[in-house]
Amino acid sequence: MKNTNDSANQSEHLDITIDADLKRAVTEVYQQYGMSLTTAIHLFLQQSVTDHDLPFDLELSKEQLQAELAREKATGDTESLAAVEALWQDWKEL
Known about the structure:
The protein is mainly α. Helices cover 60% and strands 0% of the residues. It is built from four helices and no strands. Helix 3 packs antiparallel against helix 4.
């Protein structure tokens, strides 16, 4: 008999806020591969776990990093803010 309390079998809901134009643009990108945005995010998360890292090289401009930092400060997203601030510090040291 399968254990229904096994966390590997449970799903959780993830609610994110994303710019409407970015959502439309990225949805079009993933539709080219026949996948939904939800599937693309799931693949991203799975690859992050496999790599124990971001599944790609980070290539954001100074302006993009500053904009993300400002967005997260404005929305009070302190968990992500710490990660972006760390990236900003790494970028400034390059």
